[in-house]
Amino acid sequence: MTDITSRQRQQTPHRPLVPAGDLRLVGCPECGAPAEVEWTDEVGSTSGRLELVKIRCLERHWFLMPSEGLAAR
What we know:
Elements: H1 4-11, E1 25-27, E2 34-45, E3 48-57, E4 62-66, H2 68-71
């Protein structure tokens, strides 16, 4: 038996957002322009939990990548 909360979660698209007031700017991996972290989420992987980030820069490039890739830039 499935409770209503589980059914609602399955029906609504999941789009985690960066909490309000937590503006994070990074450099665009492609052009180096300022890029905003639009959202973050954690997913399971074979080597444990992995934090993903979606970023978009002023030149409209966007990337979905592991957050550890941001630290290297």
